[in-house]
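We emphasize that the prediction below concerns an isolated chain of 329 residues; any contacts that depend on oligomerization or on bound cofactors are therefore not represented. The input was used exactly as deposited, without trimming of termini.
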Amino acid sequence: MDRRRFLQTAVATSLMTSLSKKFSQAAESGSVPRRELGRTGEKVSIVGLGGYHIGMQSDEQESIRIIRSALDAGINFLDNCWDYNEGQSEVRMGKALRDGYRQKAFLMTKIDGRTKQMAAKQLEESLKRLQTDHIDLLQFHEVIRDNDPERIFAEGGGMEAVLEAKKAGKVRYVGFTGHKSPGIHLKMLNTAFAHNFTFDSVQMPLNVMDVHFDSFEKKVLPVLVEHKIGVFGVKPMGDKLILISKTATPVECLHYAMNLPTSVVITGCDSMQILDQALNAARKFKQMDSSEVAALLGKTAMAAKNGQFELYKTTHNFDGTYQNPQWLG
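Result of the prediction step, given as a token string:
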């Protein structure tokens, strides 16, 4: 793979524009729009239900209600992770997916294991907690270290376990996530290409501040679009930090991320009120024109310039595997 050709963005930028227009087609009345997940042929809801906040809800039954209400309302993409809330996020989601709800969901979860042994162990635990025989999409979580790509693709690395699980029908698609560095994302993509592997999806922060500071949107998104890799935008509100800055409203944050060529914008919903907000934002989304985008980014530029509201990039505050390196194996 010619690295310079791989990193060229002219063609990808053009594709981003056309895809963004395609994605903004008016939804049917009362429905949640769906988009293609990269080259997989799957259709996923424009907004996805974040798994972390599900485990934070003090009332388990309320968290189950939120999940089922989201699925009933047309959200089909469910996010989760092996390490969220010591496994409680997956346990609760597994209970919510009983009684026929599993068939309504495109279920994604993540593992931290960098070794084959640890990755396989975590996957089996996730399957048990989620009460399912397969994960629609399994992603390597928190690719935030310079050596993560090499470890995952090394002999005896986590990718061996995931590919074996895929062959066995336990995993349908494979992706990775990260919130730290666009450079590490590009290294993960290049490492995969060097091993003749193309990820089905990539997850990263995409929001009104990212574009101003060490930007995933500018550096990684064009590459994903060029290679028809599904794009998951996370932290549309910077885990509430952007809202604290008072430079954008929740709906503005969601609509900005939806305006990009994202397959899904994943947002945390810890109450029915917040779920309704996400649903309404998805149903009412319309393509933003260049002047609307410029106005919104103009409001966030000064606050965003030093990364003070994107602490997941500049600190270890959001790095679960930094606090728990044993999860890596």
